[in-house]
Amino acid sequence: MMHPGIHNYSEIGKLNKVLLHRPGEELEALTPSTIERLLFDDIPYLKIAQEEHDTFAQVLRDNGVEVLYYVDEVAKSISNPEVQIQLANEFLNLSKINSRGLRASMTSYLLGMSPRDMVTKLIAGIRRSEVAMTAPTSLMDLDNDDYPFVSDPMPNLYFTRDPGACVGNGLSIHHMHYPARRRESLLLRYMYLHDKDFAGPDDKQWYDLTDAYSIEGGDVLVLSKDIVAVGLSQRTTTSGAEAFARSLLGGGSGFKKVLAFDIPEIRAFMHLDTVFTMVDYDKFTIHPEIEGPLNVYEMTMDKGGDLKFNALKEDLDKILATELKLPAVDLIRCGGGDLLAAQREQWNDGSNTLAIAPGKVITYDRNYVTNELLAQRGITVITVPSAELSRGRGGPRCMSCPVNRDDI
Fold this sequence. Notes:
about 400 residues; 11 helices
């Protein structure tokens, strides 16, 4: 069944439509000398990563979810040749291809392809050796350094959660923290503007990649039809969270408040959803190491359109119970009481669950301690294989951008 447009007012309502990206040739660009620049710690084996991802997509389909893929949707959005030219130009601008000779060669190379092939190539990266150069027009054209790409690949794109977030009846297109990921958001913008299967004419936009401050989708959680949580993290700035709150609360979204969760800015806790996710009406997974240092702030908007700020002083379980109007909430600690298990499983995304219905989640099979705890608390746990996908430091929630969910 088709579910038109964007509709997402919870973390746990039955998932109807989701946006994924099947890992491709871009993962083979990862080498010991490129991984730091491209934000990886390790090099996944592409063939197995694809098999694992296909299993994940099939589990979603088996549970009644319509699966959209990035390449297909962006290709649809540029089926008009003028739009294809526009994307090529904007992409080269973001890739900082300023030399006239190189830019001309890359433009003709890209526009000689079908829309689908061009999108695949933009994601895979463009090697210096692929672009036929005519006579050099600048020193840059001659400076054939040992870096193999004139346009970097996008190996992080299989974490489709981050470039954007479908919130309520609209989409945030994010200003990503690191340059390595900024062009992912550009592809999403084309989807939003030109692909009717993805977004409808009434779907709003809350944020854009050209906005001044960084915010990423792993830090955006839709807790209820009234409340959105935003993580202040390694990759989402305080100013970005505030600008998002101002746009969302003042833009006719229907949301009443934004809660900012201030988490430690370290690689292991990259985004809020690597340490905290919602799995049922009253149940959350949490990494125990963030409970101590966690501060929660509330942003609301007064009738005059000004943001108001308030620090919430209680323990997290009390704050959540109050905000969600529940007698109590259950915080399920990643790894249980074992600190070593908690650290190991959090590094491999034990707290990064994807709820596909209330109390029904997809997790990585490797996080067996946390999975067992979830099952003991009455959660239905569907596991997917994760030996290679987990090398990218992201779990099932990171790998999915929910577009449409049932209301709860």
